From TrEMBL, chains A, B:
It is an enzyme of class 1 (oxidoreductase). This is glutamate-5-semialdehyde dehydrogenase. Catalyzes the NADPH dependent reduction of L-gamma-glutamyl 5-phosphate into L-glutamate 5-semialdehyde and phosphate. The product spontaneously undergoes cyclization to form 1-pyrroline-5-carboxylate. HAMAP family: ProA (MF_00412).
Length: 464, 464
């Protein structure tokens, strides 16, 4: 793994080297990738003290930024690699990734086209990934592990606040890789935004961009490249309380969706309440939200209903935490203990509202009506459509993927939480074992022309 | 199906209407889509005479363009809907698509996350397609069929030379759709390039662009939109004659790859010859190519070898059809009876050359060496890697997909010939049937926290 702070002019060389490293790696057995993960883990263990010392320096510099009001405490906390079991989790993560099944080399379609002519569609890596992330330095290790496991080369750029830490993590990765037959340019760390800008233009070498960070970071990247981008900018998730919603489920699902981790992309930002529930379920849900210190941005109907409920008017947070909705509330990702609320007259209205305002990430219905559950799951056009379950379940680990590359709100390739499967594509291999080879002009309609057989072949691997 | 020649200002309304039509269609049973295909076929049959008369007018106008030197005869021929069995094939194509398995609603992953909490990943349409094609008017029917079958809404733009024909085809599609419960805006035909330009900016409504036409058309679209584009600009395919190539296979595969249909994207444009074959296999292949009137653009080594072979120096096409390679020959898609030729010293050199110059569409090795076949198929980073078979086999029908949307040289979502599978993505549906609903804060590490079950569920359909 090479590391650089070179000028823009050398960025093309970096991208070209990554592509060549990717191409060279295609003939290596996949076992070398697991070997690389083991070596990287070993190097990180050997260099633990240095890395944590560098991380302390990053933390001290960041503390000054926090003191000067230029950085949030939340960001500072994410920087800390020595906290709790974070270091051990990072190392365990490498092992976990190594132990996942190889996502490459698997046949998903195989067909005998003619006697001696066999077609195989086999999973393979995508190519060169450009991964851009912010603050949490351990992400470089996570992403390098995922890239290596899936057979992709990667160029990685961390946040500037973790420069010292990521530089040492990167060099440990480089030393691990150097002990294997994977090319050194296979994983490459870059340091500057200018390099990122230049790389985003190099669609000849870079095959997929994965940004992991703020809405601003992701939007900026989406607007400045023709390379496919996998990820999400917004996470505007909805909970809809249907006419038949069970009160207790409504309270539990809404409170969890909003408060379990408010700054996560899968936290709920908007609550839709069927108007028949305004004086029954809604005040109970509203009270539970106020108990959890959630600020409620209500439309007129939900505001009026709430204000007139006895359990609310006597609440210590009344009226301070109950506001009228600002104009842009339904397109705002609050990422905080704040929830937009709106009354709707029907399931169809809720579905249409969600389709118009959701970021197509994850939306939930609370209902006892099976037909409504089905219509919501099919009618809401989001990566996740849930029934009586918190939006917070939208997560690769919770879905059972072991680890996740990120969550995609895109509509092609991969949608929702993306595991290793999202880092592979496929290619078609066709082999003629006939005595004279196979040519297309032998097939067709008319005298002497052959017809295709198209007989399925049972195979999980390509046999040659 | 609505049709328009409206100004740019109404283009957003068209896109929005298509998205809403898509959303509304999500709750209709998939049987309505097959019903729509049947009705469309019926309408086309009813209006056959009018349509063929309009096509004749288009042909007459095009003939004037050809006479004036502004259009090629090839383009004129593609316009002809009355020729041979083209009309019947078009109608049969609708039936064929209707008879394909429904690509939506299929579960590809299902897991019990906890007692009463079930996750399903189910295939679903992508959304709104923008399809831009040139000259062949029947493409509007093919593509409308594929979009309807896969549950996607579509906005379609044909070539200006077929305006009269496509307008009538479009109105027959509209009349067919109107007899079903699919919304009228589900399939919409537009007429102008300005509308296309405006639509390419509307990534809020358009989910995938599928251009089918010239390199210039596709490149232009790829450079002017942030909406994902599925297709290919170039088709620079290679044939590599390996050291152990069988002479007869070499001749057959090279000639077919080049001459079976030279203007197709899967025709070979470059031939790489292992240098040990220069005075053996290469002259035989060269002679067969000259017999087929193929112009050979040779590097020094292949030129020298060919010129000194007795079978060549006595050939009627010698030396007229044998040229030295121009500088840009290896990045040129000839689309004609012209082939770039180069000698290479090894399989590794051939692989590296192909990876650097191929458009990653389809490349073939001719070899008797199993290890070389395997290394070529894995090492060449293209959508199709073939052994002893013509590049011309890279085609959805030949692969057994029944029909094809196009051929993708992209690295995500779909690669190579794309069937209906390329027009779907998936969504995750999660349902709690537990008495209190499911919340994420109940899960985790520590006292009283639950662990995820992650037990596979055997299901091909979502059970609610």
């Amino acid at each position: 793994m090479a590391s650089t702070t070179a000028s823009d002019s050398s960025v093309e060389a970096i991208a070209k080297a990554a592509k060549e490293a990717f191409e060279q790696s295609q003939l290596l057995p996949s076992s070398v990738r697991n070997e690389a993960l083991a070596k990287i883990k070993q190097q990180l263990e050997l260099r633990k003290d240095d890395i944590l010392a560098a991380n302390k320096q990053d933390m001290e510099a960041a503390q000054k930024e926090v003191d000067a009001g230029r950085m949030t405490t939340a960001l500072l906390k994410r920087l800390d690699l020595g906290k709790g079991d974070k270091w051990d989790s990072m190392l365990q993560g490498i092992l976990d990734v190594a132990n996942l099944p190889d996502p490459t080399g698997t046949v998903s379609y195989a067909s005998k086209l003619d006697d001696g002519l066999e077609l195989y569609r086999v999973s393979c890596p995508i190519g060169v990934l450009l991964v851009i992330f912010e603050s949490r330095p351990e992400v470089i290790v996570n992403i390098a592990s995922l890239a290596i496991k899936s057979g992709n080369a990667a160029i990685l750029k961390g946040g500037k606040e973790s420069t010292r830490t990521t530089a040492l993590l990167a060099s440990a990765i480089a030393e691990g890789l150097a002990q294997t037959s994977l090319p050194p340019a296979y994983i490459h760390a870059i340091q500057t935004r200018d390099e990122v800008s230049a790389l985003l233009q190099l669609d000849r070498y870079i095959d997929l961009v994965i940004p992991r960070g703020s809405n601003a970071l992701v939007s900026n990247i989406q607007n400045n490249t023709r390379i496919p981008v996998m990820g999400h900018a917004d996470g505007i998730c909805h909970v809809y309380l249907d006419e038949s919603a069970d009160l207790q489920k409504a309270v539990r699902v809404v409170v969890d969706s909003k408060t379990d981790y408010p700054s996560a992309c899968n936290a709920a930002e908007t609550l839709l309440v069927h108007e028949s529930l305004l004086n029954t379920v809604w005040p109970a849900v509203g009270k539970a939200l106020l108990d959890a210190h959630v600020e409620l941005l209500c439309d007129t109907a939900t505001h009026t209903a709430l204000s007139s409920a006895p359990s609310i008017s006597s609440h210590p947070s009344f009226p301070s935490l109950i506001q009228h909705t600002p104009n842009d509330t339904y397109t705002t990702e609050h990422l905080d203990l704040r929830l937009s609320v709106k009354a709707v007259p029907s399931l169809a209205a809720a579905t249409a509202f969600i389709n118009a305002h959701s970021s197509h990430h994850t939306d939930t219905i609370v209902t006892e009506n099976e037909a409504h559950a089905s219509a919501f799951c099919r009618g809401v056009d989001s990566a996740g459509t849930f029934v009586n379950a918190s939006t917070r379940f939208a997560d690769g680990f919770r879905y059972g993927f072991g680890t996740e590359v990120g969550i995609s709100t895109g509509r092609i390739h991969a949608r929702g939480p993306v595991g290793l499967e999202g880092l592979v594509i496929y290619k078609y291999m066709l082999r003629s074992s006939a005595g004279e080879g196979h040519v297309a002009s032998d097939f067709g309609v008319g005298e002497g022309k052959k017809a295709f057989t198209h007989a399925p072949i049972q195979a999980s691997k390509v046999p040659w």
